[in-house]
Structures are given as structure tokens and as C-alpha cells.
Amino acid sequence: MKILNYSSVEPKDAGEGTSKVTIRWLIDKKTGAKNFFMRLFEIEAGGYTPLHQHDWEHEVFIIEGEGVIVYEEETKLFRAGDVIFIPPNEKHQFRNSGKKLVKLLCLIPNKKNGEAVTSCGCGQKDCQSCK
Amino acid sequence: MKILNYSSVEPKDAGEGTSKVTIRWLIDKKTGAKNFFMRLFEIEAGGYTPLHQHDWEHEVFIIEGEGVIVYEEETKLFRAGDVIFIPPNEKHQFRNSGKKLVKLLCLIPNKKNGEAVTSCGCGQKDCQSCK
């Protein structure tokens, strides 16, 4: 059993296409997880993730704050306590349209369509957890 | 994309071996998830989950409250913002030792050791999501 407070994990810039967004890998391959991974994102007021798509799903829980999720050609408000499921291959973007910090958990599978995405599942070249 | 507030999901008694614990299935097979599932547990003051073990992992995030996690022969305090990874086959129990409600997310894989646990992955006969 492993326990830590999320605040003890160093936040890193969330990378290309994001603005004012950090990511903390809370549970990943190094933790011992094999099937899925937990990340915590913080989006400052005015910040956003890229409008993008990929062939794996997201399971999201909004811990704090409020904003807008863009998906395909539509938008929808989100707020604390909201649960969001983004299936594979759907365009999506998170925007902090409020005045407070947005904190959200975003979980991803280790595999897409039965095949490994990368060593950690994020699919990004510069992922710290893939090292 | 599916979005809902956790409070719109009916809480159900968490079943055998629990005391003062409810479960809400936030993301499951019916949502369209194939790889892992998100549940929200609420544990009232003095409540607890059973001391048990099974051959799949838990990925937990403590949203509110504080308590004690029992694992194997030891105990450890938990509080809001804590992240807990319980590997397969480790004994564990959550106890609300505080005065406030504990809210936590607990995610589980759809499969254990490459084989389906049940239709929803919880492994319990009376699971509402398996119907």
C-alpha cells in the first residue's frame, strides 16, 4: 500500500498546447499500477488544455473550480463534483473560465485497444513518467 | 462525452461487511467505460469498509474528511488530498475516525489478471452495476 498527499508530488508544466496548466502524476507505472493511471491537473484562471483527440478515454473528476469543456463542436460548463467521461477519439478541451484555480483528476488507461500506448500510457514524448 | 454531477447519482448501501458506507457508481460499463471504473464512497463518522483483500488493485483519492486505513497488520492516517494505491491481494480497510463525513474516489480495473472479474468489475454478487 502506498499513500501520499497530492501536494507532495511536484507539479510539472503540462506541455505543448496547454496554457497555465500543470500536471502531477499521482499513480503511475512507478507506483506499481498496471492497468490505469491517476493524474491531477491544475488550470489557472484563463488557462486551457489543447483541443485534441486520441484513441484512449479519460475519466475525470472536478475537485475544485469551474470552467468549460469543449467537445467536438459544442461546449458545456463544469463545476466541482462533476464527473466527465470522454470516450476514445472525441475532441476535447478544458478551459478555466472562472476566477479560481481548477483542480481535476484525469485518469487514463495503460492500454489503448489492447496495445500499450507508451510505458506510462500518456502518449506524450516528453512525459516524465515514461522515463 | 458524458458529464454529470456526482450528487445526481443515487447512493446505495455499500453492502456486506460495511457500516455507514454508501457507494455511487460514477463511471461504469453502462457509461461506456471498458478499462476501469470510478466509484465515490461516503463513510459516516464511525463507519468502515470490511477488512478484506482481492486480486485487483484500488486507486483512491480522498476528497473530504479523515480517517484510518488498515492494511495488512498496520494502520495509517489519511486526510483530504491523499492518494492511496492498494496493490492486488493486500488486506485493506477504510475507517472514518474523524467527526466529518469521508468522501473518497475508489477506482478499479475492469479486469484482474487479464480476465473479467464480473460485468462491471466489482466482484460483488449484489452489485447494482452488474445488472
Structure description:
The structure is a homodimer of 131-residue chains. With 131 residues, chain A is mainly β. Chain A has strands at residues 2-5, 12-13, 19-27, 36-48, 58-64, 66-71, 74-79, 82-86, 92-95, 102-109, 111-112, 115-116. Chain A has a six-stranded antiparallel beta sheet with strand order 2-3-4-10-5-8, with no helix packed on it. In chain A, strand 11 and strand 12 (115-116) form a beta hairpin. Chain A is globular and about 40 Å long. The two termini of chain A are 23 Å apart. Residues 113-121 of chain A have low confidence and may be disordered. The interface between A and B is large, with 39 and 39 residues. Strand 8 (82-86) of chain A pairs antiparallel with strand 1 (2-5) of chain B.
Map the helices and strands.
The structure is a homodimer of 131-residue chains.
Chain A: E1 2-5, E2 12-13, E3 19-27, E4 36-48, E5 58-64, E6 66-71, E7 74-79, E8 82-86, E9 92-95, E10 102-109, E11 111-112, E12 115-116
Antiparallel strand pairs in A: 2-3, 3-4, 4-10, 5-8, 5-10, 6-7, 6-9, 11-12
- DSSP summary, beta strand count of chain A: 12
User: What strand line-up does the widest sheet of chain A have?
Assistant: 2-3-4-10-5-8
- Seen as an oligomer or otherwise, the chain set is homodimer
Low-confidence stretches of chain A: 113-121
**Helical/strand content category of chain A:** mainly beta
* Approximate shape of chain A: globular
Task: Give the rounded overall mean pLDDT of chain A.
Answer: 89
Largest interface between protein chains, with number of residues from each side: A-B, 39 and 39 residues
Approximate strand percentage of chain A: over 45%
Helical fraction of chain A equals under 10%
Biggest pleated-sheet summary of chain A = 6 strands, antiparallel
Order of helices and strands of chain A: EEEEEEEEEEEE
Total helices of chain A: the number is 0
What is the distance, rounded to the nearest whole angstrom, between the alpha carbons of the first and last residues of chain A? 23 Å
Radius of gyration of chain A: 14 Å
